[in-house]
Amino acid sequence: MTEPDVSARDTTTPSSDQRSSWRPGDRKKQRIDALAEAGALSSDEGISLWQSAWRRLRRDPVFLVGLSIVSVFVLVAIISPWLAPHDPSARLLIDQVTPATPIPPAQEGFPLGGDNAGRDMLSRLLVGSRQTLIVGVLATLGGLAGGMILGTIAGGIGGWADSAVMRVVDVMLSIPSLLMAFSIAALFARPSQWTVILAIAIIQVPIFARLLRGSMISQRHSDHVLAARALGVRPAAIVFRHMLPNSLGPVIVQGTLVLAVSIIDAAALSFLGLGNPDDSVPEWGQMLGKAQTFFNSYPHVAVYPALCIIVVALGFTLMGESLREALDPKSRR
Q: Collapsing DSSP states into helix, strand and coil, what is residue 158?
C-alpha cells in the first residue's frame, strides 16, 4: 500500500503534531506568507497627485480638445511671421479701397480679403495671435506673482498681516474687474501694450492671493506641518518648504482659467481704444475695435478676430476645468 503524497498537503492546514500549539491567527499568517513568497503581493510604488491626474486627463476628451486648441494657438503664434503669406502692415490692396467698397473682398492670394487700409486680413490674424498670446501670458504671470506674494504673507504669517492683506484684497474684489482695468489703463497718458498688461495683471492679483491664502491656511494644521513644528523647524522653512509647495496646485489650475479671462479682457481694452494705438502691429482686440465702423456692411472683418478670441479662450477654459476636476479629490471615482 503506497503512502500519500506529502507535497500535495495544504500548507495552511496544521499537522497532528502542531494542533496542540495551533492558534486561530496562524492560518491567516500562513496564507499571507504564502502569497508573499509566490509574488502575489504587488511591490509597485505609489504615484503622486499630478501623475494620477495625468492618467485621467489623457483619457478625458474635453481636456484633449482644449489641449489641441491651445497647442495650435501657441504654435501659430510662434511661427506666425513665417506662416503669414504677406507683410501684415503692407497696404497691398490699397488701390481697391474706394468710398463705394472700403473693404477689399476675398480674391486670389488674399483668401480673407483685406481691411480698410488694404492690408491682408489673413496675415494680420496670424501675426495678431502672437501679440494676443504675449499679452495674455504676461498679464497672467504678473497677476500670479503679485498674488503669490500677498497670499504667502497672509497665509504664512497670519495675524495682523493676514487681516491687512485680506482687507486690501476685499476692496479690490468689490470693484468689477473690467471697470478696474479700464480705470488703471486710463491713468496712463499714452496707452500701449504694456499698459494693458499692467492693468490686467493688477485685477488678477486678488484672485490668486485669496486662493493661495486659503490653501495655505488648510495646510497650516496638516500633519506634516505639525511634525515640522514639533521638530523645531524654523517658521520660514515651514512656509516655503512645506506649506507653499503643497498649496500651489489650485493656484496653477486657476492660472489656466485666468489666462482665458486675460485674453478676453485684453481684447476688451484694445476694443475700447486703450491698447496699442499703432495698428501696424496687429492684435485681435484692436482689429475688432477697428472693424466696428464697417460691421453693418462688412461683418466678416469683425467676425474673424472675434472667432479667434472665442476659440482660444474656450481652449484654455476646457483645459482649466478638466485639470481642476482631475486634481479635486471630491470628483474622483
A: coil
> Residue 284: which CATH number?
1.10.3720.10
**Among 246, 244, 248, which Cα is nearest to 153's?**
244
- What pLDDT score does 205 carry? 92
Cα separation, 73 vs 34, in Å, equals 57
Identify the domain containing residue 284 by its residue range.
70-331
Answer positive or negative: Cα dihedral of 276, 282, 283, 286.
positive
- Number of residues in the chain: 333
**Does 13 map to a domain?**
no
- At 143, list the grid cell: 497677476
CB 330 within 8 A of CB 84: no
Instruction: Answer whether 258's CB lies under 8 Å from 143's CB.
Output: yes
List pLDDT tens digits, range 77-88: 999 889 989 888
- What is the rounded distance in angstroms from the CA atom of residue 21 to the CA atom of residue 78? 77
Q: Which of 200, 204, 173, 168 is nearest to 185 (CA)?
A: 200
Chain mean position to CA 52: 18
